[in-house]
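Schema walkthrough. Field components (list of strings):
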Amino acid sequence: MSFRLIPSLEKSPAFVARCKRPAGQWALLAAFTFLSSLLNQQWLLIGAFLALTTAFPEDRRRVVSACGIAIAVAVPNWLDLPFLDRVAAQEGLPHLHPATIAPVVAAVLLLLAALAAVAFRFPRGLVARRPVIAAVLSYCSLAAVVSMAPLTGRTRVAAWIAVLAMSRMLWFFCYTLTDRESRDRDSVALQAGRWRPAWMAGSGSITPIAKGGAYLRRIEAQNADELAVTQIKGMKLLLWAVILNEVLFWFQSVVYRRLGVPEFEAAFGRSVTGHPFFWYWNCLSLVAAFFGGLLQMSVWGHQIVACVRMAGFRALRNTYRPLESRTLAEFWNRYYFYFKELLVDMFFYPTYLRYFKKYPRLRMAAATMMAACAGNAIYHFLRDISLVAELGWWRAIAGFQTYLFYSFVLGAGISISQWRGKRKDRRADSWLRRRFVPALSVAGFYCLLHVFDDTNRTYGLREHFVFVGRLLGL
Amino acid sequence: MDEPREAIRQLVRRLLESNDDTRGFTDTDSLIFSGRLQSLDVLEIALFIESHFGLDLTEVFDQSRLDSVEEIMKLIRSAKA
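Field assembly_structure (string):
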């Protein structure tokens, strides 16, 4: 039997039976809340939310939505508060209090709910049939108006709170729009509570972890046995996140402090100023940043998915052994599952199903470029919409050149990988050729591409190419 | 013999094997939401339905309706109707 650091408790009938009892459920919840406190500043909120889902399992979906709305309105730390404070300071206003932000967030929720109600009322209308295009264009128009209109004082601050809140809810809202024709879809009120779900309390990410209403309905635990197994898996995942967080701490201590490897930002900064480190330090800093990023993504995603599972939904992991990926497309599936799902659901499938049906290769390449290149770039530009207020539209777009290049290379790489993958049947190959070499190539590709994974708009494409040269000792 | 169903089963078996998944499956087993099939596999199923049954899934495509052999069969029947 293979060794497991965390035993498969969900396979023990006796343990599952214990976790099904009320005492077992509350004990599991107490342990989960304690572990949450080691990773998440909002652990009390998470604990309270899970206490409600535990107390009212029959009303789980309603509880999820009610808590989502309550937390989104009352605890607005999912917004970029330092940015909003800077806008307030520009307008001569004091530090923003949550009570100032809450009414605007509530108004945004009401506005989006009204839009969703219209989409549900007219499911075959043009806007409802092209939900992503409609939502993204509407949002960009709003951001353009707010950034260019002569707004001042409280009105300007409120407008930017609204723009930011919408950017954080946009993709969740798109999932609601795609759910419009489901026979068993939830009401608008229930859907609204998932535009900032409670399990994302404390996270400003705009990626819909556990997707939308349709997905949640499919993965909801259907009986006490399923619920107990799901919650045990959630508990195990959170424990794994705590362990990985320790590994990350020791990794950074050893690599950056004991071995003296420069942090990637420092190595890049030295390269820009013309005083680079030796090529091998640059290479080591890149590899360390890549591995550190994998660990960070794992810890972040695991704690959120663990909470989803604890709430009674059998969600898949966000990150699952990314270094075992044998193709570039598989890497995204394993590294950042819900981001990949978002791009696939909103960009890949719609393009693939509608265009170039007579040209299979072009069809696949177009859909891949639409998702990995266009969708990826749109997602990140809208995520950082506050930079438009700080830099202006031109500098915000021009500064995005590095990430656009990254997205293009990613899209092209995945397209080529898909084409090559179809041609080769590797089942007869040795383990080394079938597993190790492809996995190493994939990791190498993403590690090198990490140089261009920069959305900060501080340095242009040229500086990034110069750094690639430094990696090669040029 | 239910030929369309058998053809779908064979396709699913091939897709699972290409993911190194040799576990068996029943017609009602979840394939997508359980994580056994990926997005590109879903696409292969959609393509297969389009090419073998002459159906256009553009307006009816929904990943959740392809989660098991049984659901795929239901989708084919409803798209044909």
